[in-house]
Fold N-acetylmuramoyl-L-alanine amidase.
Amino acid sequence: MTRKYNLFALGISITFLCMASCSRGTVPGRIDRLKAERDLAMGGGASGETATDKPVELGKKSKKSKSKKSKSTASNHHTVEKLPQPVKADPFLVDTAFANQTYDKLTQDYADTILAKPAERIKDVQYGEAFVGTTNFNLRKPQYVIIHHTSQNSLKQTVYTFTLERTQVSAHYVISRDGTVQHMLNDYLRAWQAGKGRWNNIDDMNSCSIGIELDNNGVEPFTDKQIDALLKVLQALKERFAIPQSNFIGHGDYAPVRKNDPNVNFPWAKLASKGFGYWYGDTTGVEVPKDFNEYLALRIIGYDVSDVSKAIIAFRRHFCGIESTAKVLSPAERKVLYKLYTKYL
Ligand SMILES: [Zn+2]
């Protein structure tokens, strides 16, 4: 029953998230094993209320209700009896038990990897006879924050998407329009959120960043409550992991060929004023040198300029608040770029 429902839900799920899949690095067969375990667990009806059971049960109650009401209003010919309304299945009902079971199993597997002594040996290397562990170490810390919009219609829909294995996408945090924060992955673990792209010389951003998804349909403005919640999360992350001010960027900055999030309404200036990302400030009186090289300036800021027109579009969206496919910077945009790049030197 559950499996049938899941297939149905998968079929209607909208999965055109802004996120990109990336290499998983999981142990082959692990997911199949987890699925088999889930099927075994669900087969006995142990989960109680399943998605398919729910509407059926409610439907029965509605019938009873109708029957009682018919008796009580039989003498009133002017009463228009309401027919029971069909109960729609929730298309984004998360299988929380399975999601958390999977989460626990995966974290245990990764813990086993960390505990291995010695770690995976390198071929043809002569190792010492005995493993001797150093006594001085701790966990590696993320050094970037990548901000996204979900291109979906609710936090619930995104949480649902992030608990479907087939989507192969995730993020550490999802922040709803009302400011509710859903923390879905330990900050020390690697979410599948940034995907293919490049910033500076980093092309595996998932390995060194925290991904934050903002619930947003892709074109609408972001709410004040949402941004306030984001700022609180960013402040905590910046302090906890000592993330440099320059390293708070958008998915569209990292992957300008594929992505445009967060959309042009995102308040980057406000974030920069709080210490998350740089801003160019006042360009009044700025004179751009005639030999100023836009290509190099974009590269110094961090953009991948292998497709420079895409880098220009991403830069313009982020720093000028303009969504345009124009391949050439305007004089005003050129001033912004000139003033901005000096902050990255
Ligand atoms: Zn994204």
